[in-house]
Design brief:
Distance between the termini of chain A: 32 Å
Radius of gyration of chain A: 13 Å
Low-confidence stretches of chain B: none
Structural class of chain A: mainly beta
Order of helices and strands of chain A: EEEEEEEEEEE
Distance between the termini of chain B: 41 Å
Number of strands of chain A: 11
Structural class of chain B: mainly beta
Strand content of chain A: over 45%
Order of helices and strands of chain B: EEEEEEEEEEE
Number of helices of chain A: 0
Number of strands of chain B: 11
Oligomer: heterodimer
Shape of chain A: globular
Largest sheet of chain B: 6 strands, mixed
Chain lengths: ~120, ~120
């Protein structure tokens, strides 16, 4: 167990709806990254938050947005859901002091199905 | 742009066999390389992390090697067991922090099945 938790574990939505996924970081961690893993693929980087600011973003449209709270928990929001958004969403937390060297710890993921 | 490839995509072996999983990456400028295990529908479990200055890491029956200059890593599993059945993912740590490629760039994984 890494100490990183995600909720909900599973979610079913219909096309066009909006969804919010939540991540609780491991105690003491100040950085969170979100990844999307489609079936049969490796995880793809969505974005990263460090001290409540977006620090980097992968090749995902603006309808994917996020927040990091003062307690370093995080949300991933997806608007106008599309069928291709069906995937396992993983969050990973880490403690960043010397930028670029920290180890990320992954949560169990949220399985999203868009119908 | 860094790309990570894993071969084979799937592998089936009898219990007790030693096996090697392969990972290659296109840009040798990495901080480290990490091997993960993923059980069906689950999150990622880190197995081994090799820093860019290291050649190999070992944990129990697992040994991972890194050849940065050739852009290759291997994960060696000794005396395989049915409980080793899972998907094994290789990920490299990109230079910088955050940015457009993020911290970890993953391959698609090798799905391993160990038959009793």
């Amino acid at each position: 167990e890494t100490g990183v938790t995600q909720s909900p574990t599973h979610l079913i939505k219909t096309r066009g709806q909006q969804v919010t996924l939540r991540c609780s970081s491991q105690s003491g961690h100040n950085t969170v990254s979100w990844y999307q893993q489609a079936l049969g693929q490796g995880p793809q980087f969505i974005f990263q938050y460090y001290r409540e600011e977006e620090n980097g973003r992968g090749n995902f449209p603006p309808r994917f947005s996020g927040l990091q709270f003062p307690n370093y928990s995080s949300e991933l929001n997806v608007n106008a859901l599309e069928l291709d958004d069906s995937a396992l969403y993983l969050c990973a937390s880490s403690f960043s002091l010397s930028l670029g060297a920290e180890t990320q710890y992954f949560g169990p993921g949220t399985r999203l199905l868009v119908l | 742009k860094q790309e990570v490839t894993q071969i084979p995509a799937a592998l089936s072996v009898p219990e007790g066999e030693n096996l090697v999983l392969n990972c290659s990456f296109t840009d040798s400028a990495i901080y480290n390389l990490q091997w993960f295990r993923q059980d069906p529908g689950k999150g990622l479990t880190s197995l081994l992390l090799i820093q860019s200055s290291q050649r190999e890491q070992t944990s129990g029956r697992l040994n991972a090697s890194l050849d940065k200059s050739s852009g290759r890593s291997t994960l060696y599993i000794a005396a395989s067991q049915p409980g080793d059945s899972a998907t094994y993912l290789c990920a490299v740590r990109a230079p910088g922090w955050g940015g457009s490629q993020g911290n970890l760039i993953f391959g698609k994984g090798t799905k391993l099945s160990v038959k009793p």
